[in-house]
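Q: Give me the 3D complex with magnesium ion.
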Amino acid sequence: MFGFFSRKQKNNEKKQSAIQPEAQSDTAATQLKSQQQPDSTTLTPADLSHSLEKTKRTFSDGLADFFLGKKAIDASLLDELESRLLRADVGIDATTTIIEELQSNISRKVINDTESLHLKLAEIMKTILQPCEQPLSNVIANATENTEPKKPFVILVVGINGAGKTTSIGKLAHHFLQQNKSVMLAAGDTFRAAAVEQLQQWGQRNNVPVISQGTGADPASVIFDAVQSASSKNIDIVIADTAGRLHTQSNLMDELAKIKRVLGKLDANAPHETLIVMDAGFGQNALHQVKQFHDKIGLTGLAVTKLDGTAKGGILFSIAKTLNLPVRFIGVGEGINDLRPFNAAEFVDALLE
Ligand SMILES: Nc1nc2c(ncn2[C@@H]2O[C@H](COP(=O)(O)OP(=O)(O)OP(=O)(O)O)[C@@H](O)[C@H]2O)c(=O)[nH]1
Ligand SMILES: [Mg+2]
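A: Here is the predicted complex, encoded as C-alpha cells.
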C-alpha cells in the first residue's frame, strides 16, 4: 500500500522521435485505413501509478506508518488523512464525503483494521469518481451506429492557453488510430503559424491529414472545410484544434460559439463532442474556468492533462463533485501514448497502491 515503484524507463520517447519526414496532404486520406497503424505500447497500471507519483506522495507522506499497521485507527489518523486529501486538491466536498463515510464505518466496526480501512477508502473514492467515467468510445459507437450517409464524428477541442490541447489532439489521433478509426485534424488555432506547425507535426507523426489555412484565417471556416473534406473521404473522426483563450475574452468565446453554429449547418449534431482540455496543476482555478466555458458554449467532456507533473491529482474528485461532466481522458505525460481513457477504478488503484 502506498508504496512507490522505482522509476521505470518508458520507451515512449524513443518512439516519439520517429517523426515521418514527408508532409501528408489530404489527398492521401482515402488510403488512410491501410496506412494508419502506428506502432505503440500500451500503458500498464504500473505506468499509471508511476505517473501519478507526485499526487501519491501527497497522500502517503506521514500515512505510511499507519498503513503499515503501526498506528491506531483513531480521530487523529482521520485528521491526518483529511489534510492530505485537501492538499492533493481533492476538495472540501469529496474530502468530507470520504472522511464521514470512513468515520461511520469505523463506528459501526465495519472498519476494524488497516486492511479494511484501505479497502473502504478505495471503495469510497471509486464511488465518487464513477459517474465521470463515460468513455468517448461509447459515445462515438452510439453516434455512428446505423447513420446513413455516414458522417464524421467531430471533436472540438477547447481550453485556456497552454492547457495541452494540441498535444492531446496528437495523442487522441493515435488513440483512435489504434481503434482502427480514420482521423483528420483541423488546424483551428489560426492565431500563430507555430500553432499550425505544431499540429502538422502531430499529423505527420500519426500519418493523418491536417487541414489548415493561413495564419489569421477564420477558424470556423478551417474546421468547416475539414469536416466537409472528411465527409467526402469517408473519414471517421475529425479533431479540431482551437487557440487557447480565457472565458473572460468574450470575442474569443463568441468565436467558439460561431464554430459550433457553422458546423451545425453540415451536421445538426456537430460538434458531437466539445472537449475541454484542463491542466490538472491549475487545481481549483481550472475548475472555475471549466464552469465558465460550460456556461458559455456548452461542453460535453473533459480531458485532464499533466497529472504526471502535479501533486494536485485529487482535482479529479473535485471535478466529480462539482462538475456534471464526463472525464473522457487523462494526460500523464508528453509522449504519444500518454493519454488514457479515464477509468475510475484504475485511477484510484494507481493512487493507493
Ligand atoms: N507533463 C505533461 N506535459 C503535457 C501534457 N499534456 C501537454 N503537455 C505539455 O504542455 C505544453 C503545452 O501543450 P500544448 O499542447 O501546446 O498546449 P495548448 O493548450 O495547445 O497551448 P496553446 O495552443 O498555446 O493554447 C507542452 O509542452 C506539452 O508537451 C501531459 O499530460 N503531461
Ligand atoms: Mg495549441
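A quick observation: Residues 1-40 have pLDDT under 50 and may be disordered.
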